[in-house]
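Subject: for your reference before the review

Hello V.,

The reviewers asked for a structural picture of the protein, and I figured it would be easier to keep everything in one thread rather than splitting it across files. Below is the amino acid sequence we used in the manuscript, unchanged from the supplementary table.
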Amino acid sequence: GESGDSVRALQSFLASAGYFPQDKINGNFGEMTEAAVTKYQLAQNIIASPSAQGAGNVGPSTLQAIREEQVARGYGIVRSQGWNAL
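And here is what came back from the structure prediction:
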């Protein structure tokens, strides 16, 4: 039920990782976003199954995984293109 820039940023991240359709980014946390978060959590071994507690919710473990992935992407860009790429 959440909406706004934070949800839009989450959807953009999930889209860039292949879990959410780019053309569906709208800033509203609905069933499609919840399903994408669950897929991401499963892929990152944050949850063991789609019925696990916290599935589809962006809690501390999911936020940490997303931040770590974003940092790693940033370092990869800097290593390959230099600081000016940011």
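For the response letter, the relevant points are probably these. The chain has a mean pLDDT of 94. The CA atoms of residues 38 and 56 lie 4 Å apart.

Happy to draft the paragraph if you're swamped.

O.
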